Amino acid sequence: MQSFTNRAKYTDCYDITNCDWKSKGSIFKYFITGKAFSCFKLAEKWAPEAVKDAYEGLACLPDELPQQCRSCASEVAKKMGATNEQAAMVAGFAGGLGLSGNACGALSAAIWMNTLSISREPDAKVTLSNPKATKTLEAFFQETEYEFQCKNITGKSFNTIDEHTEFIESGGCENLIDALAKS
Q: How buried is residue 80: exposed, middle or buried, by Cβ count under 10 Å (0-12/13-18/19+)?
């Protein structure tokens, strides 16, 4: 998350795109003006940094890793049948995408798991409509009253993985995690 913030200067999608994703007019303007290409350029520039950071993280020795860390995103993924590797892949979504307090990482993990399951279906086709994601969003909206920001959903910001783990182990977001996993 830190390398992304260093590259993009922001972590919130609106701050990066200046697009109101709830407004069709704003979305149309975003695409017609070519701003979408700036996101592709950002991803292209950041990808090598992200890979480098991932390798550094994966090179940690077991005794350098936090003990018994839990993530809202990984908990959702596990309840949806994720492998240990898949649960580890989404762990960084926790606490609002990389502990930033922004977009809900549990929601991101649930949508990813649902999309992954669709992609494995024999007749899978890439479309803009995703019924599983729609169902997931409906469950999410019901639990959060249309709030997307982790810091607003939880009422707190997490500075460390240990703080987030403690929150999850104390039952934080339990209803949301269950609702997303069942979606």
A: buried
Q: What is the pLDDT of residues 79-113, one digit of tens each?
A: 999 998 898 889 888 998 888 898 999 999 999 99
Pure H helices in 9-69: 13-17, 24-32, 35-58
Rounded Cα gap, residues 124 and 121, in angstroms: 5
Tell me, what amino acid is at 45?
K
Rounded Cα distance between 12 and 98, Å, is 12
Distance, CA of 100 to CA of 15 (rounded, Å) = 14
- Is pTM beyond 0.85 here? no
Contact between 104 and 148 under an 8 Å Cβ cutoff? The reply is yes
The answer to whether residues 1 and 11 touch, using CB atoms and an 8 Å cutoff, is yes
Contacts of 111 (CB under 8 A, 6+ apart): 133, 136, 137
Q: Is 78 exposed, middle or buried (0-12, 13-18, 19+ CB in 10 A)?
A: buried
